[in-house]
Amino acid sequence: MCTLEKRGNLFILTLTGEDQHRFNPDLISSLLDLLSQVKAQATSGSVLITLAQGKFFSYGFDLDWAQAAGSERGAAKRLQDMADLFKPVIATLLSLPMPTIAAITGHAVAAGFTLALSHDYLIMRKDRGILWMPEVDIAVTLPDYINALFKEKIGDASVRRDLFLRGLKMKGDEAEKRGVVKAAYDGEAEVREASVCLAENLGKRKWHGEVYAEIRKGLYPQLSAILGLSRKVYAIARL
C-alpha cells in the first residue's frame, strides 16, 4: 500500500499496490504510520517526496468500499468516516517539520488531488495525468478542511470555481500556467528527477524543522484552525 525509503536526509514515500491508490481505512492508516515515521526521524535538512506507482497518483476515496456497506445510508456513513480519517493526513503534512514535494506522475483525483495539494511543492507531468475534483459530477459535497485547503493554497477564485463548479480536468501545462503546480515536465522520469533535484536544493538550506512547520501553519491560518493545529512561537536566532 505504501513504502518509505530514506536516502540520507531525503524521505521518499510511495503509494504502491492497487493501481488507482484509492483511500480506504487500511491505506489511510498505512499512510499515517509512515508519515509518523518521517516526523520522528526528521533532522535538519530533511525533505519528503511523495509519489505513486502506475498510472494514478491517487483516484481519491475508495467509493467501492463505501458502497459495499449495502445501503445508501451505510455508504454515506462510510464516506464520512473516510473523510474524518483522512483529515489527520492533511494535518500531519501541514505540521511536518520539513519541506514536502508531491511528484504527480499520474491522475490526482478528489482526495488524491487533496493529498498532493497538501504538500509545499507540486511537480506534474505534461504527457499524462490530470488534476480533477469530480464532486459536482458525482453529487458529493466537500469536507470543510478540503474547502479551506483549496481556498488558501489556490488564491485565484476563478481557478477554484472551475475546479469545483465545472469539474475541470486540469492537465500539466494548464496547471503550471494557472499556478496550481510549481512546474510540469514531459514524462515520469523528468518529474522524478526534478523532484529529487528540488529536494536536494531545499535540504541544503538545513532549516530548523519546527520553525519551518510553524511558518507553514501561519501561511494557512483557516486550514490550521479547522485541523485543530496549535501554534508555537520559536525565536532561534542564527544571524
From TrEMBL:
Keywords: Fatty acid metabolism, Isomerase, Lipid metabolism. GO terms for cellular component: peroxisome. It comes from the Eukaryota. InterPro entries: ClpP/crotonase-like_dom_sf, Enoyl-CoA_hydra/iso. It catalyses: a (3Z)-enoyl-CoA = a 4-saturated (2E)-enoyl-CoA; a (3E)-enoyl-CoA = a 4-saturated (2E)-enoyl-CoA. GO terms for molecular function: delta(3)-delta(2)-enoyl-CoA isomerase activity. Its EC number is 5.3.3.8. One of its GO terms (biological process) is fatty acid beta-oxidation. Pathway: Lipid metabolism; fatty acid beta-oxidation. Belongs to the enoyl-CoA hydratase/isomerase family. This is Delta(3)-Delta(2)-enoyl-CoA isomerase. It comes from Gossypium hirsutum (Upland cotton).
